[in-house]
């Protein structure tokens, strides 16, 4: 049986159909192997391509990163340079300001030294003080400020206020204070103790005068001491001080500005009063000022003993003006020259009003007036004669 099986097996093995089957299987295996090899190679190629692609992308990315890094570095460098430039500019600016400040301080020191020299030894007024300060240089001058160095609108006035850098006259605003100066007109009428109040304010003013004037005299020779009794806030208690020299005024300014008096800090200003006659209300002392306490011209206290009185000064100025006026006339007929008013014609209480002076001068004035008109008519007659003569000569 076993032998038969082996023989059968060999017979089957050697049979052509088996051999053909074997051959077919071998071919199939070879084909499969080839296909597998081709697939593997294709995969290999695909992988290589993908790898190459990836390498390319990676390289591009690397390049981009490198470029970005470079750009960032460039930007940082630019910012650094700009910052350095800015720092340099700031430093230069700081240095420039520092230099300017130093120069300013040097100039200030120089000016201060010049002022000290001027106060100590006199001589020419330092140049830097010969300036004027203007509030509205392009506007017309304020008529009140030009006359009284004060204005109800203070420095917000729409007109121009011109202040000198230095002068002989100083103004200390609201220096003298008294409760009655703060009162309104209606308060005054309601107050029964008017006479007492008048006496009280006079006593108070005299005390103020005797307290302040000796101090002012330590700075130099005092010319005028004028205190306003107006109630308007821009004039109330204002004190004008005129010295004989700008040197003394400057000394006083240096000594008083910023000092304290009666619990208040005082400020001193250089002012220009072209004419006291134009600044002081001419009818206040005769109690005939129609504007009363709201008058914009100076209503002043009478100084004890008329010392440093503005009225004496105004009187002298008026007399001088009259003298100049007379001297400037060229009368042909001069046998009766006009005379200036006599001493007793002048009332300190009514200094400037021409009306009151004519009244006070009464007969003498009227006489003088008639003499003057006579002289005028004579003069005009004389001129007519002259003209007639000339006409005749010409023909
Ligand atoms: Zn004004
Ligand atoms: Zn007045």
UniProtKB/TrEMBL annotation:
PANTHER family: U2 SNRNP AUXILIARY FACTOR, SMALL SUBUNIT. SMART domains: RRM_1, ZnF_C3H1. Residues 317-332 have a biased composition (Basic and acidic residues). Residues 317-395 are annotated as: Disordered. A zinc finger (C3H1-type) spans 136-164, 275-302. One of its GO terms (cellular component) is U2AF complex. Keywords: Coiled coil, Metal-binding, Repeat, RNA-binding, Zinc, Zinc-finger. Residues 354-369, 378-395 have a biased composition (Basic residues). This is C3H1-type domain-containing protein. Residues 136-164, 275-302 form the C3H1-type domain. The keyword Oxidoreductase does not apply. Gene3D superfamilies: 3.30.70.330. GO terms for biological process: mRNA splicing, via spliceosome. One of its GO terms (molecular function) is zinc ion binding.
